[in-house]
Write a structure and sequence with these properties.
about 20% strand, globular
Length: about 525
Amino acid sequence: MPAHLITRRPGADRRSSRGAGRLRAAALGTAFVAVLTPVLSACGGDSAASSGGSTLKWTSSYFPTHWDPVVGGSGAQFRELALAYASLTRTDESGKAVPDLAKSWEYNDKGDEITFHLRSGLKFSDGEPVDGAAVKEAVERAQKQKNSALFGDLTSIESVDADGLDAVLHLSQVDYQIPQLLGQRVLQIASPKAAKNPEKLDQNPVGAGPFVVTQVIPGTKALLKKNPDYWDAKNIHIDNVELTSAPDASTVVSGLRTGVYNFADLDPSQASAAKKAGLDVFVQPGFNASNLSLNVNKAPFDNDKVVDAVRHAVNRKEFVDKLTFGYGEVTDQPFPKGYEAYDPESEDAYPYDPAKSKKLLAEAGYKSGDIKLNLVIPAEDPQAEIVQSQLAKVGIKVTIKIDKNWATPFFAKDLTFSLYGTTGRDSAAQTLTAHFGPNGPLNLSTPYEPDGFEAAIAKVRETPLDAPEYTRVLQAATRAGLESKALVFTYSQPNLIAKSKSISDLPKNPAHIDWTGVTISGAN
């Protein structure tokens, strides 16, 4: 867990170990750590680029639409953005915040101010210095830029002072979650000079990460080379990266088998074929959870009985059985079971009961077929068809509408009904806030929040992460959040990855893809 006492040890303190161990036991528990990677063999020469050196050929179904981390850092594409950008902190295999651009940090005695000390001599790929001023610019841009997807994650940060290599974050409340929150995805830092033109930065990333982008073909391909100025360059053993947008899921395995790619995120439906092809298939731990998003500010969801009817109409097991091929599990929370923030007391609060659903709709004054909903999603998704079928059984007619620009009305809270899948945050408190807070980006019903949630989450933030009561306080906040009428959670599945045997094991950092220490055999 992150540092929160005054200390000069890099990134952590003497009170961190119990909290980190607790997260390791939970977040990396039986739901996650059955890593399937077999012993790797040094075989194949498919990794050598024509110009020599080791080349990672990664095809991703989350190819970045936006390379500005303020815009694109909220979704699963943060894993790809991490090729070019680094953050103040990162998370290790236990989920603990450890140094990245910042070599150390400490809180003041009260817990409402944290100072990050950056490493000396670091530069962005355009030559600009990585210093306190760059951190200040990154935070303020994430808070204020009109199209920022991160502003709701940074509400605890009131202001930032820059002093050479130090960045002092003044907080609006006691908040021991900050190092954890900034553990990569929420504050990937861009060059302030490049960020003066956000539109240009959006397709020409300039960061201080392990790789430098040399070419971007929007939506299709990006080429990167190793950054010799990266602070941990000695532990980056990959020379080049070819990142491409994944084709149809059914063709990924053949591309991996023939060497067109050597690394790919994998749809569960393809896992068996990938194993048969001799590829390494493994589970990268994650915090993923899918949900139905409802807008309680719009009819018919402004009626609590209709919301409860939808809750009881959802058969979570059908999602697991039809979509996850044995890798997923049901969840009625924004976390998988076994994770520290998962609240056992709230489990199965609204069990599948279509008869009760019909009764609630009748009590709300609706006959079968009266409620007609548009389910707006960004692309074809089998989840939508399951929702459509399940709600039809209780008399709610759902029409699936595909809008490629779905994100604009979703984050503007203009939609009535949609689907969302979260990859979580490194800070469990921030995952809760993102879903249930009045400004939460994943709360389609903004500014609505459930009664008691604000006080519950404030208590989490002011509780040191290694305190004996932390888990109890965190689960109480989950319980308060789940009183929300705006979300119906369905299922969780881990991150499945397939790769050539020429690529060594990856660090098992929850939700992240970390290339530190990874090698590719057969390179020139």
